[in-house]
Amino acid sequence: MKKAIFLDRDGTLIEDSDYAYRIEDLKIYPGVVEGLKLLQNDYLFFIITNQSGIGKGFYTTKDFHRFNNSLLEQLKNQNIIIERTYFCPHIGNCECKKPSTKYIEEIVSEFGINLAESWVVGDHPSDIIMGKNVGCKTAYLLAGHGTKHFQELELKRINPTIIAEDFLYVAKQINYRT
Ligand SMILES: [Mg+2]
Ligand SMILES: [Zn+2]
Predict the structure, then answer these.
(1) Relative to the alpha carbon of 86, which ligand is closest?
(2) Is the pTM of this model over 0.90?
């Protein structure tokens, strides 16, 4: 069975500049390309991202796609393929906002993924909770909003598999454990 890495986007792959949608604000973190390259032979990559900025009217779904496609293109130019991007555009209650496991369940039924051998990487407690709820291994990044939410993570005793400063370190750790 295939293995996957479910990637948060903002604050994990790219700088989280609060509801970013302008392409000039798109900044891939150092180490992300190198890290993904380390993992791409063993894992499929999926982005799962909460985009409440759409629901709040800060930008449109079209803006989101334009911005996200630019990221996918930049990665593709480095021969890194993201299989698909899943996003929740909602505010308030819905069935797809992380930590909802809806998108992971969809991916599993479509791609056939071994969740116990897969990882969630993110900078928010909701990423880690989603991963734990489906039995994935989890990596919590202190890079984006991670430091801000770390206290919350501790309070909830969420206990990610890895806690790290940067994406490349996480990728090396995952690679080492694979
Ligand atoms: Mg994030
Ligand atoms: Zn939603």
Answers:
(1) 2
(2) yes
